[in-house]
TrEMBL record:
It comes from the Bacteria. It comes from Catenulispora yoronensis. This is DUF397 domain-containing protein. It holds the Pfam family DUF397. InterPro entries: DUF397. Residues 8-61 form the DUF397 domain.
């Protein structure tokens, strides 16, 4: 039985430092975004809507999560 994530184009940020401490995103269908830990590609996959991802990115760009990056 095939995994629902088989064959997807996973993307991670160009700023990724190569240590595997990154998340990757894929979109299997319109309006759906999948997120996984790049260190564990066979592990848990979280599902979000495009609206949810956009809200998170807007918050990140505005500095709302800066305290978690240090």
């Amino acid at each position: 039985m095939a995994n629902m994530t088989d064959g997807l184009q996973w993307r991670k940020a160009a700023a990724s430092n190569g240590t595997g401490a990154c998340v990757e995103l894929a979109s299997p269908e319109a309006g759906v975004i999948l997120l996984r830990d790049s260190k564990d590609p066979q592990g848990a996959v979280l599902t979000f809507t495009r609206t949810e991802i956009a809200a998170f990115l807007d918050g990140a760009k505005a500095g709302e999560f800066d305290e978690f990056g240090h």
